[in-house]
């Protein structure tokens, strides 16, 4: 008899299943993920209300964990009181990380740089205080993010630079600090030359698979609602770039995610 190896399970390190796009079929979709090769996922948050929803999801499903935090686009919600609330939420058993937090200079109507920087720094301090890893959101803010994270690194923080969009050189700098690089559906896009090159240059041991669902669905589902089962297409693309099996990508990134989020394998 040939021993048939059980299917490798995917770890989706970054989801938003509290998003209203799942209101119609959330429970059905999440329940089905188990049979679609998804082993574990971490729901990331964008403000206090979303942080509470992430914890709620994690309580309902044994394969879901939560990251709590205020996204830079919601930095207006930041004040001393919100950090106190986040601190209490971060103490919950289901919470593994602070995220997603960072800087987003993309839209002119985003909160001002000053407010974003203050909100970001306060949450990095909270992560240090709580001894938790951090999920970073950074868009059109490469230099400020690098400066702040270099400082965070010297203090002992470990970060996942989620939905990585900067140069391969900067990715290698983050890798040198022991950080992880979050790779999702964008890597399957034809025009994502920079991200494909980044994936080629950094070690597989530093890559985290992520959907950022409901956004960023991979080809051939680009533009539609994303979900964790589609990560298989991302794993396939990374495998092709690195010249390894898809199963190896899924297995190694699962272990990476456990290391980053400090879960026993
Ligand atoms: Zn996100």
What CATH architecture would you give? Answer: Alpha-Beta Barrel
Order of helices and strands: EHEHEHEHEHEHEHEHH
> What molecules are bound to this protein?
zinc ion
Largest sheet: 8 strands, parallel
Helix content: 40-55%
Overall 3D form: globular
- The parts where pLDDT drops under 50 for at least 5 residues are none
Overall structural domain count: 1
**DSSP helix count?**
9
Outline the fold blueprint.
Blueprint: E1 10-15, H1 26-33, E2 38-43, H2 48-60, E3 64-68, H3 80-90, E4 95-104, H4 113-130, E5 134-139, H5 142-154, E6 159-161, H6 168-176, E7 180-183, H7 193-201, E8 207-209, H8 231-242, H9 246-261
Parallel strand pairs: 1-2, 2-3, 3-4, 4-5, 5-6, 6-7, 7-8
The structure holds zinc ion.
Your description of this structure?
With 265 residues, the protein is an alpha/beta fold. The chain has a single domain, classed as TIM Barrel, CATH 3.20.20. It has helices at 26-33, 48-60, 80-90, 113-130, 142-154, 168-176, 193-201, 231-242, 246-261; strands spanning 10-15, 38-43, 64-68, 95-104, 134-139, 159-161, 180-183, 207-209. An 8-stranded parallel beta sheet has the order 1-2-3-4-5-6-7-8. Helix 3 links the parallel strand 3 and strand 4. Helix 2 runs parallel beside helix 3. The longest helix is centred in the middle third of the chain and has 18 residues, at 113-130. The chain starts with 9 loop residues before the first strand and ends with a helix. 46% of the residues are buried. The model has no long low-confidence stretch (mean pLDDT 96). The site of zinc ion has 5 residues, from loops.
């Amino acid at each position: 008899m040939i021993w048939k190896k059980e299917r490798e399970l995917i770890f989706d390190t970054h989801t938003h299943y509290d998003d209203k796009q799942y209101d119609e079929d959330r429970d059905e979709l999440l329940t089905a993920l188990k049979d679609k090769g998804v082993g574990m996922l971490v729901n990331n948050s964008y403000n206090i209300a979303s942080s509470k929803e992430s914890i709620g999801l994690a309580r309902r499903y044994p394969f879901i964990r939560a990251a709590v935090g205020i996204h830079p686009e919601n930095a207006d919600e930041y004040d001393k009181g919100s950090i106190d609330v986040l601190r209490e939420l971060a103490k919950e058993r289901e919470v593994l990380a602070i995220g997603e937090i960072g800087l987003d200079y993309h839209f002119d109507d985003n909160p001002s740089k000053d407010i974003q920087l203050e909100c970001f720094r306060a949450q990095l301090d909270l992560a240090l205080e709580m001894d938790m890893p951090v999920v970073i959101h950074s868009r059109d803010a490469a230099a400020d993010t690098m400066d702040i994270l270099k400082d965070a690194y010297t203090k002992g923080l470990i970060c996942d630079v989620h939905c990585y969009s900067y140069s391969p050189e900067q990715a290698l700098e983050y890798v040198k600090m022991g950080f992880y690089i979050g790779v999702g559906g964008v890597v399957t896009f034809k025009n994502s030359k920079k991200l494909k090159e980044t994936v080629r240059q950094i070690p597989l041991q530093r890559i985290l698979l992520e959907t950022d669902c409901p956004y960023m669905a991979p080809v051939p589902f680009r533009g539609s609602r994303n979900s964790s089962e589609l990560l298989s297409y991302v794993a396939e693309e990374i495998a092709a770039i690195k010249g390894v099996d898809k199963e190896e990508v899924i297995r190694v990134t699962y272990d990476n995610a456990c290391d980053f989020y400090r879960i026993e394998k």
